[in-house]
Specification:
Largest sheet of chain A: 3 strands, mixed
Order of helices and strands of chain A: EEEEHEEHEHHHEHEHHHEEHHHH
Distance between the termini of chain B: 24 Å
Largest sheet of chain B: 2 strands, antiparallel
Largest interface: A-B, 58 and 50 residues
Shape of chain B: elongated
Radius of gyration of chain A: 26 Å
Oligomer: heterodimer
Strand order of the largest sheet of chain A: 5-7-6
Shape of chain A: elongated
Helix content of chain B: 10-25%
Structural class of chain A: alpha/beta
Number of helices of chain B: 3
Structural class of chain B: alpha+beta
Helix content of chain A: 40-55%
Number of strands of chain A: 11
Radius of gyration of chain B: 16 Å
């Protein structure tokens, strides 16, 4: 009846720990509190962030540190570069911070490790329980949209962890951005716990708890500060590596084929000028557009991206072989930036799907025409059609 | 940063039936963009164009007074939907555990 799998990373494939907290699912678990081997089982590794185990009526619960350490920072840097992003997760289940008791609050979160880390680092000096849901390593907001951070998972996890035996109250603090997936009244009906929606940002949790679980209006608003905008935009450099390869191959082929069947010299000129322009557009759409988002004209992200692309793409005049190719390269950069700007809607915190679809129906045909014209001008410019 | 972000006006699918509202105020609590206000025991839509159709209000309205077509405002998800003929989906990885959103 223990939660002993929690706090350790299974050496088995992800997913096999889906029943963490389930009675009998985690083996016998540690029974003694003395000795160096406490909390260790063959085949399991204890996470560095678990400082000790707390004895509870449902068995030992891992106590987590509230400071981030080197492995957390390295892990965060790697996932931002797109390395191991799909597997950056902690085992779902119950964790403790400080020395929580039956009256301590229960904070619900997702099992994406970046999310888990951003919560625990705000809880220094507090005594609380953390209930981690299985969202397959996806952050709270996105998982709520997919309903993996959802009513059913929450009710199941409360039951599987025996939360009614651990705490005497019947309250769960669910992050506000979990609300697209968690129906508070349904949770109450299913497991008897009342959901209190906490603040949007983990940093506000101490103040929220201090105020008797009351969030100020400011704590309930999602913002989109420049640093966040750029951080999510930069992830595209890792996400789009495959697209970059295809773009390079297409440019090479398009420039090479023509007079003289295939000219290596022309292919090379086409490849590097075209790819440089594409990268200017890429930076326009994924860096400049996010950064300048509030000041770029219009509401449509495709338009904002195009404007950012015209600015960034002006850089092609530094290397354009002639005016004709230069015009094509500049237009191409603007089209690429428009496309990536449009895709940035998915990273924004305020676009509606109906609006995105509307702007896409208008923008994609224009982007298509723009791309065709850009390619024609560039191809004529590099010569030997 | 200052000013609030505004998206394309007059498009969102958010609807509310004030007669069914019990005035519990949960919609105003969960909305990340302050779309609802609660006054005199009923909620109302004060800023429709700020709605991003996340669906938190409708899901948490116990009296069923709110309806919205919930979804992610993401071009890539919509393209995935067009390609597969299904609903918009962020699962571009294909293994069901994609973290892109």
């Amino acid at each position: 009846m223990s939660c002993s799998a929690i706090g350790r990373e299974l050496s088995a494939p992800p997913g096999s720990d889906a029943q963490s907290c389930g009675p009998g699912a985690c083996g016998a678990g540690p029974t003694s509190t003395d000795g160096a081997g406490q909390g260790e089982l063959p085949g399991y590794r204890r996470w560095h962030f678990v400082s000790s185990f707390l004895e509870t009526p449902v068995g030992p619960v891992p106590v987590v540190k509230t400071s981030l350490e080197r492995p957390d920072r390295v892990g965060a840097a790697l996932v931002r570069l797109g390395v191991g992003r799909g597997r950056y997760r902690v085992a779902p289940g119950l964790y403790a911070v400080g020395a929580p008791g039956p009256e301590s609050p229960v904070l619900v979160t997702a099992n994406y490790k970046l999310t888990f880390d951003s919560l625990r680092k705000e809880l220094a000096g507090l005594n609380a329980w953390i209930l981690v849901l299985d969202t397959a390593g996806v952050n709270v907001w996105c998982a709520a949209g997919k309903k993996t951070f959802g009513t059913m998972e929450l009710a199941r996890r409360v039951a599987a962890c025996g939360l009614t035996e651990v705490v005497s109250h019947r309250r769960l603090v669910v992050p506000q951005l979990g609300a697209p997936g968690v129906a508070a009244h349904e949770v109450k009906r299913l497991c008897g716990f009342r959901v209190v929606f906490g603040p949007v940002r983990a940093a506000d949790i101490p103040a929220f708890l201090e105020a008797g679980m009351k969030a100020t209006p400011a704590m309930r608003r999602v913002e989109f500060p420049a640093l966040d905008r750029v951080a999510v935009g930069l992830v595209e450099f890792a996400n789009e590596r495959r697209t970059m390869l295809w773009v390079a191959l297409a440019l090479l082929a398009l420039a090479g084929i023509g007079q003289g069947v295939f000219s290596l010299q022309r292919a090379w000129l086409g490849l590097w000028t075209g790819f440089a322009a594409y990268m200017l557009g890429f930076a326009g759409g994924n860096v400049l557009c996010p950064l300048a988002l509030p000041w770029l004209p219009g509401r449509s992200f495709a338009l904002k991206g195009a404007v950012a692309g015209l600015a960034a793409g002006a850089g092609v005049w530094a290397f354009a072989p002639n005016a004709l190719a230069g015009l094509g390269l500049w237009l191409g950069a603007a089209v690429a930036a428009s496309w990536y700007g449009m895709n940035f809607t998915g990273s924004s915190t305020y676009t509606s799907p109906t609006g995105v679809e509307k702007e896409m129906r208008a923008a994609i045909p224009l982007q298509g025409v723009g791309l065709a014209v850009a390619l024609a001008l560039w191809r004529l410019g590099v010569g030997g059609v | 940063m200052g000013g609030r972000f505004r998206y394309i006006p007059g498009v969102v699918t958010l609807r509310m039936d004030p007669h069914r509202c019990s005035g519990c105020g949960v919609c105003a609590q969960v909305c990340p963009h302050g779309v609802f206000v609660v006054e005199g025991g009923t909620a109302s839509i004060a800023d429709r164009d700020a709605c991003m159709e996340c669906g938190a209000c409708a899901l948490n309205c116990a009296s069923g007074a709110i309806e919205v077509e919930q979804g992610v405002g993401c071009a890539r998800a919509i393209i995935n939907g067009w390609i597969t003929g299904g609903p918009p989906s962020c699962d571009c990885g294909g293994d069901g555990s994609s973290t892109c959103c």
